[in-house]
Amino acid sequence: MNARGGLRGIKGDELVGVGVPTTKRRLAAGIPLLVEAYRFLRSPRAQLDVERDLRTTRRRTRFLRRITTPPRSRTALAVCLSEEPWEIKMVLASAAALRLRGWRVVVLGRSDAASRLRRYAAAFGVDDFVGYDRFTPTGAEKAELEARAERLVRDAASFQEAVGWEFEGSSVGVHALSSVSRRLLEGNPDPTDPAVRADLRAVLPEAFFSVRRAARLLDAVNPDLVVIGETNYVVRGPLVDVAVERGVKVAQVQRLWREDALMSRVVNSTTRRTHPAALSAETLERLAAGPWTDAHEQVLRREFSDRYGGVYEMQQAYQAEGVRRYDKASFRSALGIRPGRKVVVIFSHVLWDANLFYGEDLFDNFGVWLVETLRVACRNDTVDWVLKVHPANLWKRRFHGSDRLNELELIAEHVGELPPHVHLLMPDTDVSTISVYEHADVGVTVRGTPGMEMPCFGKPVLTAGTGRYSGLGFTVDSSTREEYLGRLETVADLEELDESQVARAKWHALGVFRLRQMPLRTLRPTRIAGGDGVRDDFVWTPSSPEEFRECGDFDLWVEWVEEGATWEYLHPDPSIWPEGSGASRREVRVEGG
User: Fold this and answer.
1) How far apart are CA 196 and CA 274, in angstroms?
2) Phi/psi-derived region of residue 283, left when phi > 0, alpha when psi is between -120 and 50, beta in every other case
3) If both were cysteines, with which of 18, 37, 149, 196 could 205 make a disulfide (CB 3.0 to 4.6 Å apart)?
4) What angle do CA 58, 63, 69 make, to 5 degrees?
């Protein structure tokens, strides 16, 4: 097929594009230089920061540029649709580990103009580069897909109908609605609303285009493995969907709440809607088969202390500055809790953030769940209720330039004035989350992190949907709305968890906090004050194969990618795994190089 009409294939190391005329490709070759010039004029100090880091990185990665790829090597597609240096280095560190084990790596950038990514990739010795824009559908194809999207948007009657939109194996409705939800900062974008409909008209065609791009990209590269960070929304989501549909192994690598560690999992047809930080039931059973010791208790307490004590910059963003631990009397006094009353805490989710990816809800969305839960709380004065507004609202509102709190808007519109036994705990509170776990009696969430943390303190948590820990034996799960709402009505009768339930919760938390983490040594986290303000970054540390082997982190990761029996990456920490599990005897080893 010709360049205008479709895929011509791979010519040498060059990936020839889809639907991009040859003349345009030649013109695009000069775009990276223009991009660099624009960046320098816009923010010279920030660009100088990057130039200095590139020089340092090139010096330390010289040994990677000496690697030769064996013939008939397996191919990995390393996806980096960002120009953020920390994300670039995270993906390229994965690529380095693969190349040292004999893999061929192709780096995918957002476009041929992704000059910063290309330069870092070259520093890491990766010259196979392709811009995703090379696979843009033709004009006629775009028109056909836009018309298809227009028909869907025009006829959409409900949120749930739009969620179910599928296109050539991809959940385009989920990706489009989630993108619109983030743009509008609304948890329940109604497709019949003119503003939502306008955004869907802009977003849904892009999801369709991404499905076709993904198919043609995978045809051209034919990878055995895809390495990617974010796996959802309208650009990355369809790529992952199509790869999973074709049976290509997808390894997700990302930071969650620790800047000094990564989490990784295999995304397949079974785990596509599993939370990246989940621990499998099989792994929990292996852990819980052993005794919970004082040593394990100390490790878990330290993890909680670090998470909520300011040790991790990323986790610190999820609570206000100056938070402190309260004793029980001070906690109850600060919230206005009446003497002798049970305290039930409703842990609100960020109503518009990633609410469609990781489980099935009993209610249409987080907003409906919150309203219905608060209505019961207002009626049920046998306990005191606390609505803990998600602290991530602090930085997410700053990031999106908004001062809105969706929770308060929903209360004003659908609930009205709260009675004296229902209290608000705002995002900027100085009451630490640990104090809430310690001094409240019951938690309520859909699938939030408190559902795996609060049971470690012996407290029951009611859930209103499936998720990463539902059904694992330490939460109170409901299968219908009526069952859930009924439990809220009788919440005063709930008792603390028994010893075995608490032990399972603790093993689960330790598995997620320690074993699911991939502690970093190859990359050292840092924060740089540059022309763009303070930004996260990584510093690449090894400068030889021997130093890379000594780090061991990414080599363990690639061993798991190649041979791992579990879909979740598990760190072989002998201080955590119970004796006899097999994992505790596994030695950390690095081969090749």
Assistant:
1) 27
2) alpha
3) 149
4) 115
